[in-house]
Specification:
By secondary structure, this protein is mostly helical. Among the domains are: 102 residues, Serine Threonine Protein Phosphatase 5, Tetratricopeptide repeat (Alpha Horseshoe); 74 residues, Tetratricopeptide repeat domain (Serine Threonine Protein Phosphatase 5, Tetratricopeptide repeat, Alpha Horseshoe). It is built from 27 helices and no strands.
Length: 474
């Protein structure tokens, strides 16, 4: 009788495994594989990954197992290893459109939009009815900034699946970014109909309504987004913006405070809250918030612009010029910021730099009435009456129904000695606003210079009566 020791028995068992590996596959490899799928469905992704790996080591090496492990790796945030598994799945099955689609999504998450688009396009080539691939490619085109292609893909996705709320929502947002906001609203409406619990769709529609000037509609939608997601920091921020534009400063402040609480590192929240404090007269707190925004994002040009304006209002034009200059450095030439900086240069006595800024602002936006007014006023203050007249003539061409523009033109024409033209401009001002005492008074002076004392006296009398009536009312 032969006796087997423990070591002999172990050797025999190992020999069985080596000679008959196929006999253990159903017992081990398939069990690992099934357990991996069960763990994935249960959201236990680390366990799922472990089982998939064991199934592979036990002998399963199909395209499907590599694809499924790739999905698991994506859930765990390991897109690099996920791409490696999708590569293997495609190598084993070059017609597997889902592997191309998911590899595209992994590339998308890495910010490799061109590579993602290439994979989505291959998936669509293999399956022209693959609505998810069109949806995903639409997101990738959006990431690249190609809004037309993005909208086209979302539209195709909806042709294939007209009940997909995400495609409606994302197409709507792409339309908002393109500036076609009115077209976006029906998409958000449909997205909400299909998924009434989508806080994102309510947020997007609220943001779009705010752009359209519907502040109350925006507040309603953003409030609903917050009800669905009480930690929706961006919804608090946008609702704060809506309240601010609605001149409800306390509600706006509450929302900005909540947004800052939920995300203490959002620079735009501090920037906008700073402007709100400034609007309430708290310049010091406004500057502190703008400075906080800049510390969080040193490239936030609008925070420099806002803080610059706050510095100017507090009489510190030197700091204001520094901030305006930084804003211009970051965002390039801006007519508005150049005008602000020009004002500061003028206040610090640097007339030459002021003139250069004003002229550049005008060249950038010659039809902006605010800039034209500044140029006219500045040149009048500097005694450059001919230039002031040119700008005021430009202003009345932009705003032909503005009595103040005609009055100012008349005053400068008179200072230049052009009394007939001045009389015409002042008469036009009176025609547009018959209750403006200043226009009558200045026309009276013009009539004096023209030697028409009767009309001068009549205008002075009319000016006094209007001024008296105004004072009695006030």
């Amino acid at each position: 009788m032969r006796v087997f020791t423990k070591s002999t028995l172990l050797a025999c068992l190992l020999l069985v495994f080596l000679i008959f590996p196929g006999e253990i596959r159903p017992q081990y490899a398939e069990d690992f594989y099934e357990n991996a799928k069960l763990a994935y469905r249960a959201g236990e992704y680390s366990k799922s990954l472990d089982y998939f790996t064991k199934a592979m080591k036990a002998g399963i090496s199909t395209a499907e197992v590599y694809f499924r492990r790739g999905l698991t790796l994506e859930k765990l945030g390991d897109t690099t290893r996920a791409i490696e598994d999708y590569n293997k799945a495609i190598q084993l099955d070059p017609q597997m459109e889902t592997a191309y689609n998911n590899r595209g999504s992994a590339y998308y998450r890495q910010g490799s939009f061109d590579q993602a688009i290439k994979d989505y396009s291959k998936a669509i080539q293999l399956n022209p009815s693959y609505s998810l691939a069109y949806y995903n490619r639409g997101n990738a085109y959006y990431g690249k900034g190609d809004l037309d292609q993005s909208i086209g893909d979302f539209t195709k996705s909806l042709e294939l699946d007209p009940t997909d709320p995400d495609s409606f929502n994302n197409r709507g947002w792409a339309l908002v970014q393109k500036g076609e906001i009115s077209k976006a609203i029906p998409d958000f409406n449909r997205s909400i109909e299909l998924n009434p619990d989508s806080s994102l769709a309510y947020y997007n529609r609220g943001a779009a309504l705010l752009k359209l000037g519907d502040k109350n509609g925006a507040i309603s939608d953003l409030t609903r987004a917050i009800e669905l997601n009480p930690k929706y920091e961006l919804a608090f921020f946008q609702r704060g913006n809506a309240h601010f534009r609605n001149n409800d400063l306390e509600q706006a402040l509450n929302d900005y405070n909540q947004a800052a609480h939920l995300n203490p590192n959002h620079p735009d929240v501090y920037n906008n809250r700073g402007w709100l404090y400034f609007s309430k007269g708290n310049v010091a707190q406004g500057i502190r918030d703008a400075s906080k925004a800049i510390s969080l994002n040193p490239d936030l040009a609008r925070a420099y612009t806002n803080r610059g304006w706050m510095f100017r209002s507090s009489g510190d034009c030197v700091k204001a010029i520094g901030d305006f200059s930084k804003a211009l450095e970051l965002e390039g030439s801006s007519a508005t910021v150049l005008t602000y900086r020009g004002r500061c240069y003028l206040e610090t006595g640097d007339k030459k730099k002021a003139e250069l800024d004003f002229q550049e602002a005008y060249n950038l936006d010659p039809n902006n009435p605010e800039i034209v007014v500044v140029l006219a006023e500045t040149n009048q203050e500097l005694g450059n009456y001919d230039l002031a007249i040119n700008y005021l003539e430009k202003l009345v061409s932009i705003k032909p129904d503005d009595p103040l523009a005609y009055r100012n033109l008349g005053v400068v024409l008179a200072k230049r000695g052009k009394f007939v033209d001045a009389r015409q401009a002042l008469s036009k001002s009176i025609e547009l606003d018959p209750k403006n005492s200043d226009s009558y008074f200045n026309r009276g002076i013009v009539y004096e210079f023209l030697g028409d004392m009767s009309r001068a006296s009549a205008d002075f009398t009319k000016a006094r009566k209007l001024a008296s009536a105004k004072n009695s009312v006030s």
